Amino acid sequence: MPLVSTQPNFRMPDMNFPFVHEADFLLTAQRRVAKADGGLLNGVQNLFTIEGGPVYARLCGVITTVTGGTACNGQLRHSTVTPGTTTNLSTAVSMASKAAGTSIRFVGATGALTLLAAGAAMIDPVLTDDTRFLLPIGTLIFNSTAANSGVIAWYLDYQPLAPEVVVSAI
Description:
Elements: H1 17-28, E1 31-40, E2 43-51, E3 55-65, E4 73-79, E5 86-88, E6 93-94, E7 103-107, E8 112-116, E9 133-135, E10 138-144, E11 148-160, E12 166-169
Antiparallel strand pairs: 1-11, 2-10, 2-12, 3-7, 3-9, 3-11, 4-5, 4-6, 4-10, 7-8
C-alpha cells in the first residue's frame, strides 16, 4: 500500500538524495597523479594530459637522479588544442647540477619555479603558498633549453571541475 499523507503539499523524501551528493563529492574530490620518469629533454617533455574538462591543480617534483652539468633552464608550460596556445606557467630556472632529493615547487602569484636543495620545506600559505593553476583541457609540459641527464618525479594534485575529467601521466 503506498504512503499517503493527509497534509497538503506533502512530498515524499527522495531516498537517493544523500547518495547523489556523495557521488558528486567523489567525482570532484582532490586527486593525485604521478610521473616518476620525467627527464630533461631538449625542448618539450609532456608530463600530464587533461581531458574532459578543466582542473584546479598544484604541481611539485623531486629530482631522483642528479642532473648533469650541461647548462639548461626549465620552465613549466601548458598547451591547449583550443584555443591552440602554449602558456608559460612559471619562471625559467637553471636545472644544471642539481642534487638528488632537491624539491621543485611553483611559488606565489608568478609561479616562480623554486628549487630546494634541502628537499623538505615549510610551506607558508600566507606568504609563499604553492601556486594553484587553472588548467583547461590540454597538456602540462616541462620545457628545457637543452638536454641533460637526471630524472624528476612529478606529482600533480588536482580537483576536477567536471565529473568526466581524466588526468593521466604521459
